[in-house]
Amino acid sequence: MDKIVQFVQKSEHNATAVAIFGAIGVAVVALKALSFLKVLVDVFLRSGINLKKYGAGRGGWAVITGATDGIGKEFAFQLASKKLNIVLVSRTESKLKAISEELEQKYSIETKYYAMDFAKGADEDYQGLQQLLTPLEVTVLVNNVGTNHDIPTPFEQESDKVLKDIIEININAAMKMTKIVVPQMVSRKNGLIINLGSFAGLVPTPFLSVYSGSKAFLSSWSQAIGAELAPKGVHVQNVNTYFVVSAMSKIRRANLLIPMPKPYVKSVLGQIGIPGGASTPNTSTPFYSHAIANWAIDNIFSRGYWVNHNYNLQVDIRKRALKKREREAAAAKSQ
């Protein structure tokens, strides 16, 4: 009889444990489902902060770095269409002049431009830019300029110049540009700083280690200064970007996961202040397929899995890039 009682009690304990774990499992699944639903609501139904808050149509100026190609150029045109005056900052003066004239003619706004090579990190360049910006009411800063490894490369094989350029352009330029404009934003208690981040900063990317590290820095730094500046009326948003068709990505065709710059920038400017797929503070992943991918990285499989996935992906890209170099070298030699 005692054994029967013990068996019944044990069965009851097991059933209770199963019920508890089952309830926990249901709760976890429900929370995951709700978080995914929030992502869909964010990217398809919610509207972000109106750019009028940041001086659109009221004499405000937007400063855009890396403004003559790809995403940066698209930011210039879309912000100008919202009636923000534009300061273009990039390396090639002829391109800057042409875009400046086109913006003024098309949108009836004011423009200024400043030619500088961010890779040099020259103090006199930043001083000259500060003199240009000081009299203006700068309400928006887009830290877009960036560079990457030429091809996926093991860290010990990468050139010192590439390492230096990535640090100078991706990290130092963002800090120095922000340092120039933040004081006047704080004094007016109004401003928007958009930092162009990357999924490479979300998940470490082997063979693009320094680029990946620079974007991880940008993510952490954006969160830190975002917390500092929010009480002072300045909104900081690190935009977590997957691939976009651009010269830097070396991708020429758009698909579901890789948009053209125009729809991508439209999603960024339409969802200021909305996280989309991002789960970290002062961060957004606004483009719908990027947002879903960001959610998947945060919620499906381990971070180690995604690092290994990036490793295999970059190994494959490196192999194809090296074969392309071999073909080009052979073709040049035969000429």
TrEMBL record:
One MF annotation (Gene Ontology) recorded for this entry: very-long-chain 3-oxoacyl-CoA reductase activity
Protein residues bound to substrate: 198
Transmembrane helix listed as a keyword: yes
Top-level EC class as recorded in UniProt: oxidoreductase
Highest rank taxon of the organism: Eukaryota
GO biological process per UniProt: fatty acid elongation
Function comment: Component of the microsomal membrane bound fatty acid elongation system, which produces the 26-carbon very long-chain fatty acids (VLCFA) from palmitate. Catalyzes the reduction of the 3-ketoacyl-CoA intermediate that is formed in each cycle of fatty acid elongation. VLCFAs serve as precursors for ceramide and sphingolipids.
Matching InterPro entries: 3_ketoreductase_fungal (IPR027533), NAD(P)-bd_dom_sf (IPR036291), Sc_DH/Rdtase_CS (IPR020904), SDR_fam (IPR002347)
Active site (UniProt): 211 (proton acceptor)
TM region positions: 20-45
Membrane topology term: Single-pass membrane protein
Keyword set, alphabetical order: Endoplasmic reticulum, Fatty acid biosynthesis, Fatty acid metabolism, Lipid biosynthesis, Lipid metabolism, Membrane, NADP, Oxidoreductase, Transmembrane, Transmembrane helix
UniProt pathway annotation: Lipid metabolism; fatty acid biosynthesis
Keyword DNA-binding: no
The protein's name in its UniProt record: Very-long-chain 3-oxoacyl-CoA reductase
